[in-house]
Every structure is written in structure tokens, then in C-alpha cells.
Design brief:
265 residues; SirB1_N; 8% strand; alpha+beta; 12 helices; C8orf32 fold; Regulator of sirC expression, contains transglutaminase-like and TPR domains
Length: 265
């Protein structure tokens, strides 16, 4: 099976495996990150989990132990410069470099803690991504893997959440979609990386749920890459979808499709 086929199958599992899906994103970005490299990443997550002490009980105990092993002990953290690297969104590379975006570092924390038996979950904040340990509606703590696993105060969390009052666990597929969105955002202003933007879009469209407008984004990208017929066809298809509730926008998109085809004349 191809990487996209494996990704589509994994995304439709009854209980999607977050690490597996993230490793498939890495494999799609770089074939060398598939196979043995993906297996090595899973082994590394197991190894790190094995370094956590036994008998941890409270959320604070888990948070302190994770910081000691991952943050202080192995140097996992992020810096502003990591936002400029595609590798910061690829789990294999984050495990190798011990650097990455907040969401990928959070995946490391989640997967290591989960393997060790911790009650752990991701927390998707509007401008950040953090990790919760404990019961979301009971005793819990929030940690910031981008800052080496620093404990977050309530004030920290509220500031990042822009006043949100609850921090519900992030669904694994929503985490994966956010990672792919980060890759698209990274690639979009770089014409030399349009192929990266395209495969990130294609993987997103394989998820069981995704914004319909991404199909129009894909159509525009195809046109920008010189596939005028393919882009026009996808514009027409998207116009059909939205035509029943937004006929004005559908009409404008059909005009853009005709304009794209005109480039062939």
C-alpha cells in the first residue's frame, strides 16, 4: 500500500493511533522516513517511556517525571526558529533533533506518557498546544512541552486560550489535521514548496472529516502549479457542492474555472 492509502486506513481505525498517523505524515514528506526510520521512532518512544519511574500516582508526579526525562534529561524543547523548518512537523525528525513545534513536542509527551500508563491528553489552544495530565474535569495539570514540559499556571493557560474556560481533550484526528494545517501554512508562501502544500492537502482530505473549502484550496493550488484542467475540474466540482446554499459564490468559482481553462488556449 502507498503511504496515502495507509494513512487513509489508519485514520478510519476505530481508535486512531496518533503516533502512527504522525509517522505516516513524515513518510509522505520524505520516503527515507518510512520503514526502518518509522520503526526506530516507535522504539524510541517505547524507550523513553521505559525511563519513567514506576509508582507515579498524581498528575503532578507524572508532570515532574516527564519534565525530568524529556525536557531536562533529553532536551526536548522548541525555539522560534523551529517554526521555519518542515522537520519541526515530522515526528521522526522531532525525535531525532529533540526540537519541534508545540504540537509535535506535545505528541512526544502524549505518546511517551501513554505508553507508561499516564492519564494524558492533548489540549488545543488557539495560539498554542499543550498537554493535560489527569482528569480534564477533575485533578489535572497542564504542561508546555515547547518549554521543556514546564508546568502551566491557570493564568498561563487562560492567556493562551484567549479567555476560554475549559480545556477539553483534543481528538487524535483533530491533532493530525492541525499538524497538516501547520505544514500547509509553512509551505503556502514558498512557491518552491507547492508540492508539499499539495500532499498536505491531499492527506487532510483523506481524514474522515475536514473543511469542504479545502477542496477549493486544492483546485487553486493545481492551477498555480500549471494543472489548469485539473484545477478547473475541481473548481466546478466544488461549485456544485456549494451551489445549493451559496449560488453567488458558486457562480464566481465557475467563472474562475473557465478562466483557468482559458490558459490552455
Amino acid at each position: 500500500m502507498t503511504v496515502p492509502e495507509r494513512f487513509a486506513a489508519a485514520a478510519r481505525d476505530e481508535r486512531p493511533d496518533l503516533a502512527h498517523l504522525c509517522l505516516l505524515i513524515g513518510a509522505r514528506a520524505e520516503p527515507a522516513l518510512d520503514g526502518d526510520a518509522a520503526d526506530a521512532a516507535q522504539i524510541e518512544l517505547d524507550r523513553l517511556a521505559g525511563l519513567l519511574p514506576h509508582g507515579l500516582c498524581t498528575p503532578l508526579d507524572w508532570a515532574v517525571a516527564l519534565h525530568r526525562v524529556l525536557g531536562a534529561g533529553h532536551g526536548f524543547h522548541g525555539t522560534p526558529g523551529d517554526y521555519q523548518r518542515l522537520s519541526s512537523s515530522l515526528l521522526q525528525e522531532v525525535l531525532r533533533r529533540r526540537r519541534g513545534l508545540p504540537i509535535l513536542l506535545s505528541v512526544v509527551w502524549i505518546e511517551v506518557a501513554r505508553r507508561a500508563g499516564a492519564p494524558v491528553y492533548g489540549v488545543a489552544l488557539p495560539g498554542h498546544f499543550a498537554v493535560g495530565i489527569g482528569e480534564p474535569d477533575g485533578e489535572h495539570v497542564l504542561v508546555d512541552p515547547f518549554d521543556g514540559g514546564r508546568l502551566m499556571s491557570a493564568a498561563d493557560a487562560q492567556l493562551l486560550a484567549e479567555g476560554a474556560e475549559s480545556f477539553t481533550p483534543a481528538d487524535p484526528l483533530d491533532v493530525v489535521q492541525r499538524i497538516l494545517n501547520n505544514i500547509r501554512v509553512w509551505a503556502a508562501p514558498r512557491p518552491e514548496h507547492r508540492a508539499v502544500q499539495l500532499w498536505a492537502l491531499d492527506l487532510t482530505l483523506l481524514l474522515p472529516r475536514h473543511p469542504a473549502k479545502l477542496r477549493y484550496e486544492r483546485a487553486q493550488l493545481l492551477v498555480a502549479m500549471g494543472d489548469f484542467l485539473g484545477g478547473a475540474a475541481e473548481m466546478d466540482s466544488y461549485a456544485e457542492v456549494i451551489g445549493t446554499f451559496d449560488p453567488e459564490s458558486a457562480s464566481a468559482i465557475r467563472l474562475r474555472a473557465r478562466s483557468a481553462r482559458a490558459h490552455l488556449n
